Amino acid sequence: TTRSWDFMGFHEKINQTATVESDVVVGVIDSGIWPESESFKDEGFGPPPKRWKGACKGGNNFTCNNKLIGARYYVAESARDGTGHGSHTASTAAGNAVKDVSFYGLAQGTARGGVPSARISAYKVCAPMCMAHNILAAFDDAIADGVDIITISIGFGFIQDLDRDAISIGAFHAMEKGILTSNSAGNNGPLGATVSSLAPWILTVAASSTDRRIIDKVVLGNGTTLVGSSVNTFILNGTSFPLVHGKDVSRNCTERRAGRCEEGCLDSDLVKGKIVLCDDYDRGNKAAYKAGALGSVLYNFRNTDDFSTIPPFAATTLNEKTYSVVMSYMNSTRDPQGTILKSEAINNPAAPLVALFSSRGPNLILPDIIKPDISAPGVQVLAAFSPDASISTTPGDNRHVQYNIMSGTSMASPHAAGVAAYVKSFHPDWSPAAIKSSIMTTAWPMNDSQSYVPTYEFAYGSGHINPVKAINPGLVYEASKEDYIRLLCMKYDEARVRLLSGDNSTCPIGSDKGSPKDLNYPSMGAKVEPMKPFAVEFHRRVKNVGLANATYTAKIFSESKVEIKVVPEVLSFKSLNEEKTFNMTVAGSGLPYGSQVSAALVWFDGTHNVRSPIVVYTA
Amino acid sequence: KATSEDREVSIVYLGSLPHEVYSPLSHHHSILQRVIQGSSLESLLVRSYKRSFNGFAAKLTDQEREKLANMKEVVSVFPSRTYQLQ
Fold first, then answer.
1. Which residue from A130, A169, A174 is facing B83, i.e. has the nearest CB?
2. ipTM value greater than 0.95
């Protein structure tokens, strides 16, 4: 967060009024929290909002304050963060502004949440695994306690039906009570259909990069310098060290296993004082470290430059191209030498790019609802951590830190939650759907150029979150509990829907049943039959939340051969909160199997650009 | 009689809380009582959800889960799976 908020143009104290913001409570369902962190100190905070019904039940030696106003735990002995993850996400969403923090000098700056003056209530469900029944218990409490926004950087990883997924169920009841839930999309990208947070009442968040990239360098004996990806804070005491390949420093493994530095393969006597090259990204570090090597250079076969781990010793990962340069050098000289430099931050002009690891759509449960919804920073984010003696940044690393660099959609979700809380502080009466809409329709357009097979909106949703614009979207796509119930009627029988709603809801029958794509969603998606003509209709309504007297004109942005019509093309509003409906038709033919066409609808009034992506795709 | 090994923590989701006067805990007990045989209810009930929505978690066998899933007041029954930090 020492860069992520500024990268989005959301500078410290921009438009933020501490008194209003301090009425907002962010509920963090995660691995607990480190209450003594500077990020959660309560200097300058008054007592909790009067409506707050939560409690501080964090267990032994756990004290809340006027910043951290609630804590509950469902696993382990207390709400104290056992992994660092919960402190990281909580401080990203709503942590205090803490100056001059860094990770061993890296990523130095002011760490802060999206709403530094907001309150936090922590619900510990992971230690480090998270069971569904505990997640549900946390939702049950958080909703009743009176949080305003929930962030949950937890996922199942596989597709589950909406009534069998603890997060979907919990978020549904949160939505009923006016609480928006932000949820990480998952880290199973870049394969398609890997996103597992699929409910339309959830804000599903993909991870993207910022313009700060942390790299390190390998310098070879012949003077060649190669750029690697890891957060290496170790400085090697000397200029050059012998380089050896795993296969040459093993006595008891096959060449292939030794080359990958599989555990038990490296001979301690042969690796001491040397930098070991390993053909495996996952196993190499651990084995080389355990065997007593000085450092390691790993082959990252995924070629992902946007994901970097923190090694327990001097180590880096190289992509296919750069790793092969090292291998060629090794083969060309009798005494290969090299060194690994300490990491440094460089400018990444390509940002924001959606991270390769970020899970992709389409949505396998509701194919016409585009997931993920939005992208937010989730690569190399520095935020609060747990300095507990039993916790380290990486297995094998005995150092303990107050602030740590982490990557994942886990880091993206609290950024979105922070923005949602920011919007809520300006518009306390807005529904979860309105807040979600404001975030989605004000997003920056993105591209997906990093992926081998670009999936565009299925990678980044509506685009990159834009906090400054999100408070003033002009129009919102509103959806009430009844709208979601109508959607559920398409999946479940009336009796089950009534149990879900808790009232005597009736389900439309026959042709009135409609389609999931009729949900008043801020993005428009439709799955169509391959190689056949199609004409897909979307029915939408928008609510005026900008200027009382406003006229919006529809603009279509499309490079594809589909024909898109909006009726009417002009919407004139006479008052605030007035609603207008429109229909959009997308027609075309002959989309091949596995293809996707993207376009966008923008309602423009001279000030506001209310942008919705349009995606038509085939199986 | 099912052994503890046959049982898995499962979630019995009952939807929203009714608007009328209602005692969730006794309802949860009564539902559970209808399907378990020969075990003490207290040892099987893991957690009741009663503040914001309706349901409970209990250690159940496959057969008990199936029976519960067929009850008209039950929305869904599913094993409490392991989620991960991301």
1. A130
2. yes
